[in-house]
Batch of 4 targets.
Target 1
Amino acid sequence: LDVHGNQYALLTASKCFKQSMVLNCSSCHNVHQKESNSLEVFAQRCMNCHNDDSHNFCIVKNIDKQTLINKCIDCHMPLQKSNQIIFKTGNEKKPLYELIRTHLIRVYKQ
């Protein structure tokens, strides 16, 4: 699936979705507020399930805990190029791909 094509299908393929009884679009997105670039807001919503008490908190040894909390989305929902949104200009030899945050939540290799 393309990162732009079907975000709900990507979400439902995620381990978070499969193990949760309540995860859906509104678990993270508030349709009444503009939050699209508020990564820390979304990261705090991840912490509703992923915290020290629930024993499913990310443990990367060389990154401090507060950075893990504030930036979890950058690792587990990274920006990926869309093959559906491509820009071609006269000056560029290579096409430019739009970067969109994936909704396939998982551990990605760095």
Target 2
Amino acid sequence: MLSAENAGFAETAIRSAAFGLKNQWRYDVLHYYFGQTFLSPGFPLSAPGSVLSRASLVTDIANRLGTADLHAARLFNKKLFMTLQGCDVRLASEGNRRNEWTMCAPQHCELYQRCTDALDHRRHFLIEKVLPLFDRVFYLNPELGHVVPNGRFLPYSNVDVEQFDVAPPSTQGRLKIVHAPTAGRIKGTPMILNALEQLRSRYDFDLILVEKTSHEQALEIYRSADLAIDQVLAGWYGGFAVEMMAMGKPAACYIREEDMMFVPDAIRRELPVYRLNPGDLVESIAAILDRRSEWSTRGQASRRYVERWHNPKLIAKAMLDAYESPDSIFELAPGAD
């Protein structure tokens, strides 16, 4: 932790730059995250109304200074890696045009206008000028493959699956459906709630919304649930679904077919997530509820999937191999494809 959580942008930038300039020479490998580096620690250079958003020349100078540490690291033969998560590099305007269903729309994301007015410009600079400086680039959401052509999809490693006990879904009695909203509407929560409300007259279930609680309390709630409904706009599942699958629970979300070309064949074949259609959520959820008898089997497949593709130990081993040789094949499960 380079600065306090409540630190301002200036303090964060100064502390980050000072640490990087002083310490990055001690390391052979530098792995950055969320499109940020020591000299570009994520503060909004292009915030609406700021001096930088009004003066493109100043913005361009600031962007170029922000890559000085990367150029210096390459000069000294450091190995550079970057992991991208989503909105660090997702082009809102392009995603809105390309996708029928997406969080990048004014009705789903409060920041959409800011993204199209200012932040997409910075993301273009990241894609075109910054990412080519890295030896390897990974992204956690398959959609990013459209804008990061030389990157590679990397599954989440947020769950230590060995620490998760299996808690199979119940096969009878009142259903327990769980959903974990985030701030705003980017998961499609209003759409999900509307669909489930329409299904109450047809199915007997409790809907549990997990929000504003500790992670430990959330996990306890997850263990008591039978079915997880994750996001329906991102086109992929999130960390919440991984935790549920690790417990042997079935999970459902929207999987965008146009993005699957960026996912390894073996992961696509084994993907156990129930697929939801955002354009007809009522009936696609109903079809899952009608198949309750297979949930235990689907939950078992989900657990195996997490053990195979979201195991942090296996991901760490593959990453260490990449650190040794950045041009090597990044294999999470050798022989899987």
Target 3
Amino acid sequence: MVTFFMVSHFLTKKEAKAAHQVNIQEEEVNGIVFEGLSNIQTVKFLQMQSSILSIFNEKLEVLFNRIRYHIFYFRFRVGMVNLCGESFRVGIAGFIIWGIFNDRYEVGFLVLFLGYFDRIWDSLEVLSDVTNEFIVSKYSISRIIDILNEPIRIVSVQGKQSFPRNWKTMDVKDLTFRYDQHEVLKGVSFSIKRGEKVGIVGLSGEGKSTIFKLLLKQREEFGGQILFDDTPLESIDKSDYLRYIAVVLEHTELFNLSLEQNILLASPNEFSKDRLEKALRIANLSGFLHKFPQGIKTSIGEKGIKLSGGEKRFFRF
């Protein structure tokens, strides 16, 4: 039995690693399929079919090779484990038969041994399969360990204060920020008065999006200060702060829900018919609702596929 567990454990780890590689490659193949279907219009208009299919076939070939390795290790493990078990069975049965011929054992002892061995063997096979599944799951879980160990960037809400609703000036003083070792912002300072319209212009990668990420409290490990009057941004409760902030993102993710449900996702508890109609009117969405068979209740499809590019831009607002 000790030999069985040693052989089974060693070969199970090999098979589990092969299964883990299959899972990783399956994710890559599924990712290519998902991205191709999600951007089907771009693929068609720019005639990317052949390039996408070429990449897909390359990843699919890698997947098939890894599946072959997995099948090989699976069969090899089963074969070696069965060989150990049958060798033990034949060896002990031969020894008992030898004892029977030498009047040391009765025939019933042989029957008893074979019956108990079959029962124990069935249990060991089940235990081996469960162990294999456990090891494969352990490899899968290990892939998210880095995410689980990632330190929390936004500190606890304890001790935070409400957003000052009557603020007059927002001051950014000597703002610095870096991604790991790459410095993005260094000594940025400016002031914006309430009601003032300001545009930030710069080359790609110069930190424009990073400034807005910091203003949206997505990251707090920055140097310098962001003040609303005399209140530091990092001392303000995030949930309360975001209630008074509106943002039009560069890329808006739309869900396979109705127009109304997509609009209300961000603030379902603050719904009112008047507010909804006002939002539709301000964003100029009410002008094309009549084109949809169920109006605002119409499902817009996955990633808003039923909307035109212009309609999606209006939807961002």
Target 4
Amino acid sequence: MLQVMPNVALALHLLNERYNPKSFWKPYIDILPATFSLPLWFDRSQLELLTGSPCLSDSLQHVRSVGKLYSHLHKLLRAHGDTSIYLYSVGFYYDDFVWAVSAVMSRQNEIPHERDETQSKLALIPLWDMCNHWPGSISTDFDAELRTCDCFSPSAVRTGKELRIFYGARSNAELFLHQGFVYPPNTGDTLRIKLGLSSGEDSVTKSMKSRLLTKLDIPLSGVFHVLAAEDPFTPQLKAFVRVFTAKSEDLQRYGA
């Protein structure tokens, strides 16, 4: 399971090192935040504030997924019985697992694998992962020979001033769900909306709409994006709405 879920493997490794009092990584782990402003940490009243936002269903899905993962991993660790593993000897607690998942979710980065540079793996990069987000362009690279993360500032940074980096083109919903903050003037912001053909429509009309959408290479149901731009509606969204609201005679005219 962990081979196909490297983020979970990294979270377990982080938690195991946190439990190890002699860990090489102890100075780094000790300065990681004790709590996170992620939906995983929200109580019911805080989650209810997301009512009406697509982030609510995504947040609830995160909570459910982490809960199921914890339950499954807890059973595996109890069956393993290896006291040399700190996760077993100290105890595997849900709150600690949520902490580790949150740390990895908000800080993980892909770097080339040391044994095969065509492959990548997830890693935490001490200190660099403390940098806050700032709009711009990617200015970080990885030196495969020296195995170092090289970050370049687009402008001079005066003594005592904060060094910030560009996290990448992400919507505020993605930043909120995975990093725990939003950036209001985010020019790359998008609104995700879930749309699909009506199940209550008569079978003939629905079949015509399905054929036309398939011909246009547009999914019959899925997530569409509204952009933070002068023209916020993507061509795909416009086409879907036209087909969704079309009458039978219109569908016939378009060869559905």
